[in-house]
Amino acid sequence: MRAGAGSLRLYYHPLASFCWKVLIALYENDTAFEPVVIDLFDPNSAARLRAVWSMMKFPVLRDDGRGHTVAESTIVIDYLDTHERGPVRFIPADVDLAWQARMWDRFFDAYIHEQMQRIVGDALRPADAKDPTGVGQARDQLRQSYDFLETRMAGRKWVVGDGFTLADCAAAPALFYANIVEPFAGSHRALTDYLARLMRRPSFARVLEEAEPSFVMFPLEPKPSRVVPEFTG
Q1: 46, 53, 93, 181: which has the fewest Cβ within 10 Å?
Q2: Which alpha helices (DSSP H) does 29-160 contain, by range?
């Protein structure tokens, strides 16, 4: 691994989609870090996270060398791009491409990632606490977003410019899980091809390989799979 300037520790869970987003960035530039897997149901493990970030949300990056604790996946990647810079730049140097990378990162988080999590979260609720209206709204938002992205990705390899950026780090876990809860592989060719490229990218392929033993914990059917999707429409 490429040695970093400080001693980095990432607090994360191998099934958590926002943690995948950061892992992709770390693996893209072969950045050295200590992985700290957190199980919130284990008091000792949870205490390790609480000691560095009392909000008890992951991923969290701790940089002992610089004395910083960095939370929220987008901010962690921005931090890595500044302090642990490698050959892959997640925020492009071109100012117009930079704001576009940030905008599309927010698009994938808000319109894909969070809607997918709303559906998965509902599956974990007891029967008397289900929110069918909220789930329906989330599915509607996903379908609208798929249509929008189908146009965006037609003829494109990556979301912004010619290179892999923050936006693609955000897209990979969001689209992977979204295609399970509200499939698009049978209806959106460009989007399906984009997800396939993401899954073949070595950084994301590594994330999926490491997460595979945890796929059985996913609360919906079908369970996640490393099989690369193909357009079936």
Answers
A1: 93
A2: 43-52, 73-83, 95-107, 114-123, 132-153
How far from chain centre, in Å, is Cα 49? 20
Cβ neighbours for 126, distance < 8 A, ≥ 6 positions apart? none
Please state the φ and ψ torsions of residue 192, each to the nearest 5 degrees: -65, -45
Taking only the tens place, the pLDDT of each residue in 188-232 is: 999 999 999 999 999 999 999 999 999 999 999 999 999 999 999
Q: How far is CA 147 from the centre of its chain?
A: 20
Phi and psi dihedrals of 119, rounded to 5? -70, -45
User: What CATH number does domain 95-217 carry, 1.20.1050.10, 3.90.76.10, 3.40.50.800, 3.30.430.20?
Assistant: 1.20.1050.10
Nearest Cα to Cα of residue 81 among 205, 20, 164: 164
Q: Based on C-alpha coordinates, what's the Rg of the chain?
A: 18
**What pLDDT, on the 0 to 100 scale, is given for residue 1?**
46
Q: Are 90 and 79 in contact (CB under 8 A)?
A: no
Distance separating alpha carbons of residues 116 and 180, to the nearest angstrom: 9
Tokens 């989609």, located at residue: 17
* Residue matched to tokens 């609720």: 125
Specify the long-range contacts of residues 47-51, CB closer than 8 Å, at least 24 apart.
Answer: 48/11, 49/11
Token pair 């979204």: residue:
178
Kindly report the pTM of this predicted structure.
0.96
Cα–Cα dist 46/25, whole Å: 24
